[in-house]
Amino acid sequence: MKPYEHGGNVYDYEGEIIDFSSNINPLGVPEWVFDIIKKVDLTKYPDIKYRKLKKAISQYVGYSQENIIVGNGAAELIHLFVRAFKVKRPLIPSPAFLEYERAVNINGGEPIYFRLEEDYGFKVNLAKLLSQMEEADALIIGNPNNPTGQAIIREEIGILLKKAEILNIPVMIDEAFIEFMKDYKNYEALPLIKRHNKLFVVRAVTKFFGMPGVRLGYGIGSPSLIQKLEEHKEPWTVNTFAEAIGRELFKDKTYIEKTREYIHREIDYMLYALRKIDYLVAFDTKVNFLLLKLKTGSVDDLKQMLLKRGILIRDASNFRYLDKSFFRVAIKKRQENEKLLQSLEEINMKNLMENKERVVI
Fold this sequence. Notes:
Layout: E1 18-19, H1 32-38, H2 51-61, E2 68-71, H3 73-84, E3 90-94, H4 98-106, E4 112-115, H5 126-132, E5 138-142, H6 154-167, E6 171-174, E7 199-204, H7 205-208, E8 217-221, H8 223-231, H9 240-249, H10 253-274, E9 280-282, E10 289-294, H11 299-307, E11 311-312, E12 314-315, E13 326-330, H12 334-360
Parallel strand pairs: 1-11, 3-4, 3-5, 5-6, 6-7
Antiparallel strand pairs: 2-8, 7-8, 9-10, 10-13, 12-13
Helix pairs in contact: 2-9, 3-4
Keywords: Cobalamin biosynthesis, Lyase, Pyridoxal phosphate
Protein name: threonine-phosphate decarboxylase
Organism: Thermoanaerobacter kivui
């Protein structure tokens, strides 16, 4: 089994690094967050029921507090879902976020994988996915999916949920990146929770708001599902800093809309520029990262050449069904994006010069 590595591991490298391996909001942390941190009282435990935090999330998502659970990032809630429902053979459209697989393996299970085909743009073939659900005891979907950047519309999710009800299996939908989408309302599964008792929707607050170090995630489901998860959950997994910040995050509508506008605009800019680089294939995306493929060569060589220029990319070869020709980059600030594009173009020119020199010799 390939190692469970993730993006954002800048600690293995020295010097100034622009981290394109981590899919974090390029606009950075809202300024008001630092004022909140200064006021945090560290002499008290967080409220073990997180009532104020859940109230803030409740107002944001339109569900009551009994429909909400909070966690130490989305990762805790993914593992909690697998543990609470004793999931052993979930169906996972892949390539996908590695923690789905890891959570199942840790709990003694072995996932079933639905292969997302490159020739199909890594999109879900609904008919094929429905037919494969017969073998599974759960369904786990990233929507939008990491690392492909593709998403399933809500109508198709509804069809999958009806099949899951027939099979009596739980469904977890990871929406950690959905808020980056300009047309997210066409894709989010939240409205379906009212009709499906075994649907669990997971979100990661800290990705969209640019502060992964805070570690805050939340999940929404039916009251019975949330109660089941709470029974298997450790206490106080959300610290006082995360709780205090989380109570205010969702009020910042200006930041939220500004982020969506920027990402939507920058996706078009990046895809247009990357598709002009002749040794790359750039796949469509709906969120703040792009999956890329080398037409020739290995990502190991490309990664080293970019590191010399102070740029870190995400080697995507440890995602299931991807090999050493694939890598992923985040969408950053325009100046940083331009540096990446320029570096990729220079590397291409360098390779051409090397080939020319070999011919002369």
